[in-house]
Design goal:
The structure is a single chain. The protein is mostly helical. The protein has one domain (3-146). 68% of the residues lie in helices and 0% in strands. It is built from five helices and no strands. The chain has helices at 3-7, 10-28, 41-69, 81-105, 125-146. Helix 2 packs across helix 3, helix 3 (41-69) runs antiparallel to helix 4 (81-105) and helix 4 (81-105) packs across helix 5. The radius of gyration is 16 Å and the shape is globular. 28% of the residues are buried.
């Protein structure tokens, strides 16, 4: 497959734009996490980059699920309410799962005192807001790129 054909795939564009936009968000939300502010510069970059790669994978997975449940891989060109609901729901559920895994079971990071959390599940509000704000922007950029 040539580079041009690869760059014409919506999944590749989803991954690229999701990575770029989520990387900015990850750095902006650093003050809401414990210990990352005091971590070395390189450790902070590694942690934010790894989280961003996970965000991009979640976006591609959400796109794929929406494609399978919806009207095919071109749904992003004119997403209906159902497409957006599925896309966002997959991301929100993945966020809740992975945040719980990272903050509790694996103890990879902890929320700081400034992080508001959802009652009962304990998921941080900024990771949830990230999924509700960034992915629609990703879709907008992908539409502009591929049309």
């Amino acid at each position: 497959m040539t580079d041009r054909k690869l760059l014409d795939l919506p999944e590749v564009n989803i991954a690229i734009f999701a990575f770029l936009l989520n990387l900015v968000w990850e750095f902006w939300q650093v003050p809401f996490f414990r210990d990352i502010v005091s971590a070395s510069h390189w450790d902070g970059i590694k942690q934010c980059s790894l989280a961003t790669a996970g965000d991009a994978l979640i976006a591609v997975a959400a796109f794929s699920v929406t494609s399978r449940l919806g009207s095919g891989r071109d749904w992003y060109l004119n997403p209906g309410w159902r497409d957006m609901a599925v896309f966002l729901a997959v991301g929100v559920l993945a966020t809740i799962f992975f945040e719980a895994l990272a903050t509790r079971a694996l103890d990879k990071w902890q929320y700081g005192d400034a992080m508001p959390t959802l009652p009962i599940v304990g998921t941080g509000i900024t990771p949830l807001a990230q999924w509700l704000i960034v992915p629609p922007l990703v879709l907008w950029f992908v539409r502009r790129q591929l049309t």
